[in-house]
Specification:
The complex is a heterotrimer of chains A (589), B (432) and C (448). Chain B has 432 residues and is an alpha/beta fold. Chain B contains 13 helices and 17 strands. The termini of chain B are far apart. Classes of the chains: A alpha+beta (589), B alpha/beta (432), C alpha/beta (448).
Chain lengths: 589, 432, 448
């Protein structure tokens, strides 16, 4: 351990000596030093409603080995000081295409010889396919889910009417096959269709479901008789789809039926009542008008967490502003014919259009229904979790907060993220809570997850630690005034015991900034960085350099004030250091 | 793939047969005395009087007019109305809706002011006699499609050549740039729609600027007896518009579009008529202030927005009229132009009132088209475009008994009546 | 001000939001156009539990029953549209010339604003139909206009007989023959497609009978399509056949006669007037447009006197809309038969009440003002056949679903949370015939 500090310094020194453009490579070739962790002094939310403070957690062999107060630190443990931090069970996504490659669309759709009776695959009917067949753990969507606290995904294949079966995977690194928690969770179904082949519409899909279901049911019954005594009985000729749906017919696997809006929900429920399969309503964006029926039938729901935007007021203001400008113009006209005072008066009366106001009120009411939908499900005791087929994970945190503002309890929200999906997927004995003996799937946040500015600091997947780098909250300061930072600047990074420096060349065009950077060892050897973002006077960019086959990132976050700047830079895993500088030259023409 | 689509579409659209107009009985020309009816003059109230038709004109109106050699038609208990005028149709330009070879209203190209509807009007179109039987005597026959579809003309619904039918008004049609959705299949994003609208407006202004230049060169050329070094048929067709000798008929329906159309008309100082105007009720005051007349319709159409009152299309004409807009009514139809009195009737019931509704399909369109000297009311000296009915022509039970166009007594016969006569009691019936 | 307007809307939606309920009402002192029992002046009509329980003078309201004074108003049975495509999210499954398996009842949309607009025209029931792309199209659904409900099942008129759409002539020929190069491309082909479906159905019926009797060991392939065809053969489903030309109408009668199918109502049937005696003799119904013609070649030789000729030849005739626009004024469409054919008031009103009810097999429930029938009622200011008539109230199962005095501009149920002012559609080019909706999208348009 002692070497670590000197190693750190050596690396920093070296990396600052030469900048080389990088091809992306593995980040952590050194591997893990230990798989034992000691999470010290955290608030542990074991499950919804059960929260313990000042707890230590020991993680060993991928599992939660111990939870309690003032535990002794195992000799081989890496200690995570979690003072004031919160520990939750890793979040479970109820259904998504995380890491699942999209089905390739043929460039040209072939015209089928008999579009009314196409082969199953041309009709989007492939329930025999597994989402695992197209799963790639290195896909960036996996990392994105994890950064947001999700450690387990229920992956569903992409396609149309019956794309295939789902699987539950752990979102940790390594060979995916070791990451499969459950295969064949159930059949994924949608109203989406292939074009130019039966079924091409909603009504076609409903009808096709009946045919497929009855065929599987008949086949399943026939198989029993045939297997008992095949004498005098024709050999069963099952096609892939018929065979794949037998577990559904036997209620061994549910159907995850995507039902976007309330009418889809009712239609799926009709099919469920008529045919009798087990159902999970999936990726539902609008369900509030149908909650009573859903509650009565005891159907679990996977909500699409996206919510309608409430940006209207801003827009309104803008429009009003425009309107005012219009009026100013009109007033100018009015001055030309001064007598027309009555017309002027009429114009001011027009500002508030009662029809528009009424429409706006109805829209707001509608938005409110969506925002309070999760709360309504909770009140009606409908078991629900979240799915991310259409929804955007990056907005998830903001959206779940809105749901809470609109009546969802924090316990309800946490259940939807942990215990409910675990139970729904039948993995609740190993996942979904923070309890001794369960797999170490944890999310650690700097404050209560449901607080506005909370950030995910660590995620544990199967006991493997992920440190989540958090980007600082950025606010546009100096009132959004645009600064011009074009020119040549010197910089100095203060690393304990030394100061390193070099030059920046900034080129700013409107809001776009290109940064070139050099180091003191080769002061005119510039590395170009094109990921810079300027927020008011706040510049943020990341430089990636390589050293000895390892790539290291330098995250700069600096603020300009006239001819000088100050800020800090995070260097790989080594820490964050102050940086400052000043302008030394005007932009080159 | 696209080629296949076009090929298949073409297959669907093209037929290779010819279609002939219906034969109906000939009209009768002469002197007629309509005796003892109630004359709904429109401009001079309802009066009990005789009406003399001579030389194609209303020769006299008065009590106890002498018959002399006139054929006397007993109109006691009957009503006489001026013929109805439909301010916007495709009548004569299309024979069968789905067969493109019978359709002559939509020429290739976006800027077609030189395409003359009158050229393609088929005087023997089957729909013309069908239309007449409900008291319609004149219609605007207008081209469609593109930014400037062509030049529309007012025609009388009796004659053997377009020239005989021409009724003295032509106007260039402009489909004013719009941000409306074209229908259920219109999947463009709001942004795309906005861009298309802006592009179209730029196009329109380009056409206008070029037409202005063309007109200036043409004028100075004429003054110096020099001929132009370029001939441009489109811009040539715009000359009368630029010079204020011809009106433009601006098709516009959405509230904001109507406002920009009004602004455009003011900017260009053009003589204009607004057509369609289905959201006129939202901007009625602005239209009234602009003084631009309106031809609205179809009245029997569904509201433009899901949040609109169910009856807003019925009420639109009345609401505009109340705000002071000069409103005529059109059907925007081809084979269903005969429904014009019913469009007017619905407008009447939903706020416009019967009297104004009658005006909206008689004198007001005549005024808008600048032909009120000859059309639109029962007045001495006007053309004899009128009909005799056994009651209120908006009412369903009413029958139109006689109809005159330019003094021709046109029989109330059409394909529809002929088929009725033939098939009501079919012989042979069920058995041979 | 705004709040007030909004609360009114909410209240309005709430009152009609009580789903598939039935109501009690006393309509006081109206002119009853009973259809089956003449005109009754100054008469009251009592509704209890959604049914008409009494008709007579000076009825008194039982306790708690709301009274509507309809003095001077005309009261008629709720208008029934035997051919419409409103309240549907999908209309044509145009991939196959035979789609007897699909059912538009699976695609009902109770939140379609067209339902409210139809109610505002006195229409209480409509026949939500599959489109006309296929020789044998999908099954249809007879619905009641209970606007305010959000569960599609609440629209269904419980107990109404099953119906199915057939289509002859240009539409199936264009879609399949020309579009997909499969049968039928001609009217000869249309006949064979239908005969083939019936023939296959007989085989299917036998296969299953054999299986059930143990003669066959393995189950035959399940086919919703063939099952439906068998049901037609068994007389359990009424055929509603889109048709125009006289020859094709006779063709279908011949096919059906061969298979012993008698329940048939022809739709549009523009040349029905030419074969009115044959239609009457077979007992076939005819549901026609009042005056549509000329929009394609097979309706070129049409006459607006069609309904009158059919009715006078003894064919059960109705007038339909096939359109979200026309459905709003079917009373006016029916009145056109007075201009074109001089039908009496009773004859004209039957075309939009009792006759469509007969064609849909629901005349025991609706279509006239009779004690015991469902309280589906339209109330007009002015005679409904007058151009100046204005619907005032429309009642479904005793519930007031349209009341002109409480009407609000915005009667949407499902408000899109992403738009403030709903988009404006220029309907001048579209809105009419939805018979072919989804077809061209399927055949010619890719997504986006």
């Amino acid at each position: 351990m002692k070497e670590l500090n000197s190693l750190k310094c050596a690396m920093v020194l070296s990396l600052l000596m030469s900048f080389v453009v990088v091809m992306a490579q593995g980040v952590n070739d050194l591997g893990e030093v230990t798989t034992t962790y000691f999470i010290k002094n955290a608030t542990v939310v074991q499950k919804p409603g059960t929260s313990l403070s000042e707890q230590d957690i020991i993680i060993k062999n991928g599992m939660i080995a111990e939870i309690g107060k003032s535990l002794s630190i195992p000799f081989d443990a890496m200690v995570i000081d979690a003072d004031s931090m919160f520990v939750y069970a890793g979040f479970i996504d109820g259904g998504s295409h995380t890491g699942v490659k999209k089905k390739e669309e043929p460039q040209q759709r072939e015209r089928l010889p008999n579009p009314g009776n196409p082969p199953n695959d041309k009709a989007g009917i492939t329930p025999e396919v597994s989402a695992l067949d197209r799963f790639d753990l290195s896909d960036k969507s996996v990392d994105e889910m994890r950064r947001n606290g999700f450690t387990i995904s229920h992956i569903l294949p992409d396609g149309s009417m019956l794309p295939g079966k789902g699987a539950i995977v752990s979102l940790g690194e390594g060979n995916y096959q070791n990451k499969v928690i459950r295969k064949n969770t159930g059949v994924f179904a949608q109203f989406k269709t292939e074009r130019g082949a039966f079924p091409s519409t909603l009504i076609g899909v409903m009808s096709k479901w009946r045919d497929l279901y009855h065929d599987s049911k008949n086949a399943s019954e026939y198989l029993v008789k045939y297997n008992a005594n095949p004498v005098g009985m024709p050999r069963p000729g099952l096609d892939n789809a018929t065979e794949a749906l037998i577990p559904v017919v036997k209620k061994e696997q549910p159907v995850f039926f995507k039902a976007e809006k309330v009418l889809d929900v009712h239609r799926v429920l009709n099919l469920h009542e008529e045919l009798g399969f087990e159902l999970v309503l999936t990726d539902v964006a609008q369900i509030f008008p149908a909650v009573d029926r859903v509650a009565a039938l005891k159907i679990p729901v996977l909500l699409n967490p996206d919510l309608p935007k409430e940006e209207e007021e801003k827009k309104e203001k803008k429009e009003e502003k425009e309107k005012k400008e219009e009026q100013v113009e009109e007033k100018k006209e009015d001055i030309e014919d001064k007598d027309d005072t009555k017309a002027k008066k009429d114009k001011t009366e027009e500002v508030k259009d009662p029809e528009k106001e009424a429409l706006l009120a109805r829209k707001k009411e509608s938005i409110k229904s969506y925002l309070s939908q999760a709360s309504l499900l909770e009140q009606k005791k409908i078991s629900f979790a979240f799915s991310f087929l259409d929804g955007k994970i990056k907005d998830f945190k903001a959206n779940i907060r809105k749901m809470i503002e609109n009546g969802l309890t924090e316990n309800g929200a946490l259940a939807a993220l942990t215990t409910t999906p675990a139970k729904l997927m039948g993995i609740d004995r190993q996942y979904g809570t923070v309890e001794k003996g369960k797999m170490a799937h944890l999310v650690i946040t700097d404050k209560s997850y449901f607080e506005e500015k909370s950030q995910v600091k660590y995620v544990f997947v199967d006991g493997h630690k992920y440190e989540i780098e958090t980007k600082p909250q950025r606010k546009i300061e100096n009132n959004g005034e645009v600064v011009n930072i074009s020119g040549e600047w010197s910089y100095e990074i203060e690393i304990p015991g030394m100061t390193r420096g070099g030059k920046f060349q900034m080129e700013q065009q409107a809001g776009d900034v290109t940064v070139k950077m050099s180091s003191q060892e080769a002061i005119d050897d510039f590395l170009t960085i094109d990921n810079a973002d300027l927020y008011g006077n706040n510049l943020v960019f990341t430089a990636t350099v390589t050293f000895g086959g390892n790539s290291i990132t330098l995250d700069y976050d600096i603020k300009f004030d006239g001819d000088s700047f100050e800020g800090n830079v995070a260097i790989g895993d080594f820490g964050t250091f102050p940086v400052k500088g000043s302008k030394i030259g005007e932009p080159k023409k | 793939m696209n080629d296949i689509k076009i090929y298949v579409l073409a297959l669907l659209m093209v037929g290779t047969f010819s279609i002939e107009g219906q034969q109906v009985a000939k009209g009768e020309y002469g002197t007629f005395l309509l005796k003892g009816g109630t004359l709904h003059t429109i401009t001079g109230g309802d009066i009990q009087a005789d009406l003399l038709i001579k030389d194609g004109m209303i020769a006299d109106i008065g009590n106890n007019l002498a018959a002399n050699d006139a054929r006397v038609i007993d109109c006691s208990g009957k009503s006489v109305y001026p013929g109805f005028i439909d301010g916007g149709t495709r009548l004569g330009l299309s024979e069968v809706g789905s067969i493109s070879v019978t359709q002559d209203f939509n020429e290739i190209g976006d800027i077609n002011p030189h395409m003359q509807a009158l050229t393609a009007v088929n005087p023997n179109a089957t729909a013309i006699p069908v239309t007449r039987t409900n008291g319609i005597t004149s219609v605007i026959s207008m081209p469609a499609g593109g930014l400037i579809p062509g030049t529309a003309s007012l025609i009388d619904l009796y004659g053997y050549t377009p020239n005989q039918m021409f009724a003295g008004f032509s106007g260039v049609v402009i489909n004013f740039p719009t941000s409306a959705r074209r229908g259920r299949f219109d999947r463009r994003s709001d942004d795309e729609i906005k861009k298309a609208e802006e592009r179209a407006l730029k196009n329109l202004n380009d056409v206008w600027d070029k037409a202005l230049l063309y007109a200036r060169i043409d004028s100075s050329g004429n003054a110096q007896k020099m001929s132009m070094n370029q001939y441009n048929p489109q811009l040539d067709a715009m000359l009368p518009v630029i010079r204020g000798e011809m009106a433009v008929m601006i098709e516009t329906n959405k509230d904001t579009d109507i406002k920009s159309a009004i602004k455009w008309v003011k900017e260009k100082g053009v003589k204009a008529i607004l057509t369609g105007v289905s959201e006129g009720f939202r901007v009625a005051k602005e239209i009234a202030e602009s003084g631009i007349p309106v031809i609205t319709g179809p009245v029997l159409s569904i509201p433009g927005r899901a949040s609109d009152r169910y009856d807003i299309s019925y009420a639109n004409a009345g609401l505009m009229h109340k705000a002071g807009v000069k409103v005529a009514i059109r059907t925007s139809e081809t084979e269903n132009v005969r429904n014009l009195p019913f469009h007017a009737g619905f407008a009447a019931a939903y706020g416009l009132g019967k009297e104004e509704a009658l005006k909206a399909i008689t004198i007001i369109p005549a005024e808008i088209f600048g032909v009120a000297e000859h059309y639109g009311s029962l007045e001495k000296g006007k053309r004899a475009n009128l009909f005799v009915s056994d009651g209120d022509p908006f009412e369903m039970k009413t029958t139109i008994e006689y109809l005159f166009i330019n003094g021709w007594n046109v029989p109330m016969e059409s394909r529809h009546t002929l088929l009725y006569d033939e098939f009501l009691e079919r012989t042979p019936g069920l058995n041979k | 001000m705004v709040n007030k307007i909004f609360s009114v809307i909410t209240a309005c939606l709430l009152t009609i939001g009580i789903s598939a309920q039935v109501g009690d009402l006393l309509l006081k002192n109206g002119t009853l156009l009973t259809i089956t029992d003449g005109v009754k002046e100054e008469t009251d009509l009592l509704i209890q539990q959604g049914k008409i329980t009494r008709i007579g003078k000076n009825l008194s309201a039982p306790q708690g029953v709301q009274v509507i004074d309809v003095t001077g108003h005309h009261i008629m049975p709720g208008i029934i549209d035997a051919h419409s495509h409103i309240a549907l999210s999908a209309i044509n499954e145009a991939t196959d010339p035979v789609t007897a398996d699909v059912n538009v009842g699976d695609a009902l949309n109770p939140m379609d604003i067209s339902i409210y607009r139809a109610l505002a025209g006195g229409v209480t029931s409509s026949h939500a139909m599959h489109g006309s792309a296929n020789a044998i199209g999908g099954q249809c659904e007879t619905i009641k206009h209970r606007y305010g409900v959000t569960n599609p099942n609440d629209l269904i008129m419980e107990g109404a007989p099953r119906t199915i759409k057939f289509a002859l002539g240009e539409n199936p020929m264009r879609v399949h023959g020309e579009g997909n190069s499969v049968l039928p491309r001609t009217r000869m082909g249309v006949e064979q497609v239908i005969r083939n479906a019936f023939g296959q159905a007989l085989v299917y019926k036998k296969d299953w009978a054999d299986y059930k009797a143990g003669i066959r060991k393995d189950p035959p392939k399940h086919s919703e399509k063939m099952k439906t065809m068998v049901d037609i053969l068994n007389g359990d489903i009424i055929i509603h056949c889109h048709s125009y030309r006289a020859d094709e109408i006779l063709m279908l009668i011949n096919v059906l006669r061969d298979y012993g199918v008698t329940k048939i109502c022809f739709q549009h049937v523009n040349e029905g007037f030419k074969v009115a005696p044959e239609l009457a003799a077979y007992g076939a119904g005819a549901s026609v447009f009042a005056d549509w013609w000329g929009y394609k070649f097979e309706v070129y030789y049409s006459t607006a006197y069609n309904a009158a000729i059919l009715a006078k030849n003894g064919v059960i005739t109705s007038i339909n809309s096939d359109s979200g626009e026309l459905i709003r004024h079917l009373y006016h469409e029916a009145a056109k038969t007075q201009r074109y054919g001089s039908l009496t008031d009773d004859e004209a009103l039957k075309l939009i009440t009792l006759n469509p009810a007969i064609q849909l097999g629901i005349d025991n429930r609706v279509g006239s003002l009779q004690v015991g029938k469902d309280a589906d009622i339209a109330i007009f200011k002015g005679h409904p056949l007058s151009i100046y008539a204005i619907p005032q109230y429309t009642i479904v199962d005793g519930m007031v679903r349209f009341n002109i005095n409480e009407d609000q501009p915005d009667m949407r149920i499902d408000v899109d949370p992403s738009e403030t002012i709903p988009a404006f559609f220029d309907h001048t080019a579209e809105d009419h015939d939805r018979c072919m909706q989804d077809v061209f999208e399927t055949l010619f348009f890719e997504d986006k």
